[in-house]
Amino acid sequence: xxxxxxxxxxxxxxxxxxxxxxxxxxxxxxxxxxxxxxxxxxxxxxxxxxxxxxxxxxxxxxxxxxxxxxxxxxxxxxxxxxxxxxxxxxxxxxxxxxxxxxxxxxxxxxxxxxxxxxxxxxxxxxxxxxxxxxxxxxxxxxxxxxxxxxxxxxxxxxxxxxxxxxxxxxxxxxxxxxxxxxxxxxxxxxxxxxxxxxxxxxxxxxxxxxxxxxxxxxxxxxxxxxxxxxxxxxxxxxxxxxxxxxxxxxxxxxxxxxxxxxxxxxxxxxxxxxxxxxxxxxxxxxxxxxxxxxxxxxxxxxxxxxxxxxxxxxxxxxxxxxxxxxxxxxxxxxxxxxxxx
Length: 341
Fold this sequence. Notes:
CATH architecture of the largest domain: 3-Layer(aba) Sandwich
Number of domains: 2
Strand order of the largest sheet: 3-2-1-4-5-6
Oligomer: single chain
Radius of gyration: 21 Å
């Protein structure tokens, strides 16, 4: 009888990046139904894996010096046979090495991977660009998974769903009307519109659908006082700001699960919405590492808008300062894909 595979999937970076390993844990469990699959992430991203039927254990690492050996002990305790370090760090490589994980794999090659006897899975210098979730899956393929399904998934319980509906209704967002979640921030994780562009879009949505009852739900903690004041001055009950009322990532996830549409740049919230199977309109730069091909929303109901090749070559190419995504995708282009039912 074959020994049970006990697999630890490691991704200790940001929210959107962590969402990209949700298809990995699913496909591992489907390929090896009797396996034990665990995740290692930062505490602030662990909520992504709650209620996930493919995850048997969630381990967290706050990346502090004093926590290093505590995580090693937890890894050792669970006697993992395989470790997939999808976000390569020296810390994780040594944790799995000292935690006696028998077969360890990581993305790319680093000197510390040599010292820790960690096998390398190449991204082949991104010459043949594909989606980040597909690159993540390559580590699972390395240990025998055979799949092309890289659609992310996050699971919300019925109880969580009910609680989030009540939370929204308590904030003048009825469950039975169309809800557009508009996330204006990106914390500089990707090229993004200015708040002026988002304000233009917001006012155009209100103008186009003036006769309908719906809600535009603002969620970005980074919103400036100027932007918030401009919205407040509109005095329109259909625009609701919940950014300072959503406490914690899990509550944010559950709130997004009730959205009918998410509009956002390539940052964590749009990947959360994608994994919740919410329709999205994504705003993307054309540069390979920021592009829709690499970071685009994968669910079939969504639209990825990317700056055109012609615009990028004219305005954003070599020798030209800064990204011009501000003008490369206009509010009018986004508005074409906004439909309120």
